[in-house]
Amino acid sequence: MARLRAADGVVSAVLFVLSVVAASIEPHKHQFLLRWPAVLVAAVGCAALVRRRDHPVGVLAATVVCGVAYELLGVRDSPLVVSPVLVAVYNVAARTDRRTGWTSAVVSASVLVSTAAVFTPQSWLAPDTVAMVAWTALPAAIGDGVRSRRAYVVAVEERAEHAEHTREQEARQRVAAERVRIARELHDIVAHHIALINAQAGVAVHLVDQRPEQILTALEDIRDTSRSALDELRVTVGLLRQSDDPVAPRDPMPGLAQVPALLASFERVGLAVSHTRCGETEPLEPAVDLAAYRIVQESLTNVRKHAGADHARLCLHYHRERLTITVEDDGSAGPHRPHRPRPGAGHGLIGMRERAATIGGRLHAGPRPEGGFTVTAELPLRPGRPGPARDRRDGHDDSCTAC
0.90 cut: is pTM over it? Predict the structure, then answer.
């Protein structure tokens, strides 16, 4: 602020000298005549410019009054004499809105021109009068351009700051979504395989007394299950590596093609799953294939962990634009098993719903009226395409007696 005040002081001093010199020159007599009243008027007008940043309209009024005083003193009109007025007009146009700037310029020119026409014998259309109007309009136009330029720069800076803030917010959201996705993937892998290992270990403990000769088979099942868990963890963790990392694994993520092996792993721990397919089977998008597999895996894991049942049903129904997955059981929590989670509760159910919603599908889970539990997921065959409503409109048969 001190530097701006100093700069304004220098500008005012320069304009004071120019105004005094221009007011003291007699062009027709070719002589220099210093008139002290004009010096005093110039001093007042130029001194007012020091406060032009704080009071632009008030400073303009003061300089216009000084311009009128020049006319009354008989000082000839010239851009240098009324230079404080021109600077004040520019200041108002640059620091206020367009309407105020041009209104101030028109009023200032009208006052000066009217005063010159009344107190001097020249005509309204005299060259000096027209020149005064032009000289007053010029700083108004320059000030309006400067104001528009400043507003444009401020708008660009605000947009840049907003874009930077938006990019940071989007980056945080992507990081949070990725963390949720990784947590969901790890939960499905660990929960499924740990549940199987726990069941297989229980079988091994039971066989110690009943059938010792089958302990080796149970231990081999535990080994195979833990190896499968490690393989899936390796693939999942490998996705976190950089794409140019030469040691990053390239194994495919699991899909519905691995469902038979998944059902066999459950069968080894005492859960028999009847598997049926309806409709014309077709290859799925990788995202849909992985989501379908994880939903089947988590649903059957919940049956094994929470339901007192040794049988479950899995149905995969392929419609024209969607895949319906249904997992049912007839069991209920036994005296030595934890109660079945409420519909919508638990990380497993939340994760399945998130998987379905991510690809544009939906999932419903809840108890069956006749007993047991059911999970139904509707997934679009192509991510992001709405499937359920369109299938019913196109006349395709949604019924499946096998399911």
Answer: no
